From TrEMBL:
Species of the source: Nocardioides seonyuensis
Coiled coil: none
Gene Ontology terms, MF aspect: transferase activity
InterPro entries: Glyco_trans_2-like (IPR001173), Nucleotide-diphossugar_trans (IPR029044)
Protein name: Glycosyltransferase
Native organism taxonomy: Bacteria, Bacillati, Actinomycetota, Actinomycetes, Propionibacteriales
Membrane listed as a keyword: no
Length: 273
């Protein structure tokens, strides 16, 4: 779990995560920045036996360095990350471990962080596949970087996150090499508290959004709650309709998509994922 200016959420997300652990599961905590309220919220848990390591980076290094810190230092069978603004579901780890054990071809499998109304069965049905052991996935080449579970062997095979590589890019790279990725189905929910529709959200108006400004909102030119909600709805649609052909995310296709996003942002329109 990576924390950053999240005292309003981490007092919920960290205890929930710890409650879901089995006897052999451990949490590594990485804190970015010097927000005293967040440091105070996590301080009681630093001595918890379920917290294996704690690291404080005064610089906000975001994703790559903390992720590679875990991937390179852990000797666990599986690795994961849970965002400080997300509430995982009870039993999520047991469900995902059982799915991996029954299906060695599984790569990165994830929770579903969108509200029920964002699920469109007529769109998603073609991507839902059954696998050994009674497990099913809504196949997708990538999942979000929270509430997922992947074998650490995958990081040994494909190395760490690259200098300019997103977690999405890493998932696609693993899928290109044969890993089967996707969202466990029936979905295992993850409450994304920065979604204005979450009952625990701290984003109630545009001022709240500007104060918190999720990274994906900033990257896509979002400035209002209405735009942010629309982007979250659109991202759910993308996940349910995205191509399963890795060639769709490389070469000229990738360049064309990137150009469309830049044009939308330059024109003052939030980019659609």
């Amino acid at each position: 779990m990576i924390t950053y200016r999240s005292a309003g959420y981490v007092h919920l997300s960290l205890p929930r995560l710890l409650e879901t652990l089995g006897p052999d599961d451990r949490v590594w905590l990485w804190h970015n920045g010097d927000d005293e309220a967040t440091l105070e919220a996590i301080r009681p848990y630093r001595q918890d036996a379920r917290v294996a390591r704690f690291h404080h980076s005064r610089e906000n290094v975001r994703l790559r360095e903390p992720t590679n810190w875990l991937w390179s230092g852990s000797d666990a069978r599986f690795v994961s990350k849970v965002d400080d603004d997300c509430l995982v579901s009870p039993g999520w780890l047991d469900t995902f471990v059982a799915a991996h054990d029954a299906n060695p071809e599984f790569g990165v499998i994830g929770s579903w962080r969108h509200p029920a109304e964002d699920f469109r069965p007529e769109l998603a049905q073609r991507k839902i596949k059954e696998y050994a052991g009674g497990h099913s996935l809504m196949r997708n080449l990538w999942v979000q970087g929270s509430g997922y579970l992947m074998p650490r062997a995958l990081t040994e095979a494909h190395g760490p996150l690259g200098p300019d590589e997103s977690f999405t890019g890493y998932c696609i790279r693993a899928a290109r090499a044969g890993a089967v990725n996707g969202f466990y189905h029936p979905f295992v929910p993850e409450d994304h508290m920065d979604d204005p529709r979450s009952p625990h959200t701290l984003i109630h108006d545009d001022e709240d959004l500007l104060d918190r400004m999720p990274l994906s909102a900033k990257a896509n030119g979002v400035s209002t709650v209405e735009q942010w909600t629309a982007q979250l709805v659109q991202s759910a649609i993308v996940l349910q309709t995205a191509s399963l052909d890795p060639r769709s995310y490389s070469g000229w296709r990738k360049k064309a998509k990137s150009l469309r996003r830049r044009v939308s942002i330059a024109a003052g329109r939030p980019a659609k994922w």
